[in-house]
Amino acid sequence: MIRVVLPLHLQTLAGCDREVTVAVGGEVTQQSVLDALESAYPMLRGTVREHVTLARRPRVRFYAGGLDLTHEPPDAPLPRSVAEGSEPFMIVGAISGG
Questions:
Q1: Is the separation of the CB atoms in 20 and 40 below 8 Å?
Q2: Per-residue pLDDT of the chain (98 residues; tens, 9 = 90+)
Q3: 10 — phi, psi (to 5°)?
Q4: Closest-CA residue to 55 (of 34, 77, 76)
């Protein structure tokens, strides 16, 4: 099981806790984790990734194992600690303004 930490607005939308677990079959990548998350919580479709292209939405960032994985390819393997469930995959809403 993969642990995923969600920001408050996505927790509210999905009606879930801060941390959820999802099952990923095969290689653990950003794409496979997000696919599993959207399958378990269909109301999150289109909030983290675009509906059609599945590209990451602006101002959404991904972290795992102390690393910023935001600009890594979506099909790149996530750190072993995430695949083993000892570290969570974190989805964070970036803060912007001036």
A1: yes
A2: 999 999 999 999 999 999 999 999 999 999 999 999 999 999 999 999 999 999 999 899 999 989 999 999 999 999 999 999 999 999 998 777 66
A3: -75, -35
A4: 34
Q: Which domains does the chain have, with CATH numbers?
A: 2-93 (3.10.20.30)
Angle, CA 97 vertex, CA 94 and CA 98 arms, to 5°: 145
Residue type, 64: A
Q: Is the Cα torsion angle 11, 77, 60, 63 positive or negative in sign? A: positive
Whole-model pTM above 0.90? Answer: yes
Alpha carbon 30 to chain centroid, angstroms: 7
On whether the CB atoms of residues 81 and 52 are closer than 8 A, the answer is no
Closest-CA residue to 56 (of 30, 76, 38): 30
Which H or E run includes 80? helix 80-83
